[in-house]
């Protein structure tokens, strides 16, 4: 369960529920496919591939990349790692800490780049 406060996102989810509430009730999953069943992992991959192909972005994007980016964003916003662990369904905090290490590595990379650019281009 996650908190959603953005009114546009809430409205979109409410509209979706209004359209598909019978399917949602019968299959017990919020996101459903055209066969009235839960939206599968493969379906999500296909949707991402479809919309990525419509762009000029030449990188293979996966659902895991969204998951990882979201976890990193939560960490960057100082969300407690135990909350992220629960949200992601990790049985071990060690698994969740992988995201912490990546986020910290990225922050170090950004800081190193800023220091490097200042040494060659000092502020005027």
How would you explain this protein's 3D organization?
68% of the residues lie in helices and 0% in strands. It has 124 residues and is an all-alpha fold. It has a domain at 62-124. Helix 4 (81-88) packs across helix 5 (93-120). The longest helix is centred in the C-terminal third of the chain and has 28 residues, at 93-120. The chain is globular, with a radius of gyration of 19 Å. The model has no long low-confidence stretch (mean pLDDT 83).
The level of helicity is: 55-70%
Unreliably modeled segments: none
Helix and strand content put the structural class at: mainly alpha
Mean pLDDT: 83
Radius of gyration (CA) equals 19 Å
What is shown here, in short?
With 124 residues, the protein is mainly alpha-helical.
Brief descriptors of the model:
5 helices, 124 residues, single chain, mainly alpha
Question: Which SSEs are present, and which pair or pack?
Answer:
Layout: H1 7-27, H2 41-53, H3 63-76, H4 81-88, H5 93-120
Helix pairs in contact: 3-5, 4-5
């Amino acid at each position: 369960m996650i908190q959603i406060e953005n009114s546009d996102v809430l409205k979109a989810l409410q509209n979706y529920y209004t359209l598909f509430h019978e399917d949602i009730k019968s299959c017990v999953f919020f996101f459903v496919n055209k066969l009235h069943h839960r939206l599968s992992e493969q379906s999500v991959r296909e949707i991402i591939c479809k919309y990525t192909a419509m762009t000029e972005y030449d990188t293979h994007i996966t659902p895991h990349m969204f998951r990882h980016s979201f976890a990193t964003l939560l960490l960057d916003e100082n969300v407690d790692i135990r909350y992220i662990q629960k949200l992601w369904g990790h049985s071990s905090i060690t698994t969740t800490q992988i995201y912490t290490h990546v986020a910290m590595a990225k922050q170090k990379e950004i800081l190193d780049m800023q220091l490097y650019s200042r040494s060659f281009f000092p502020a005027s």
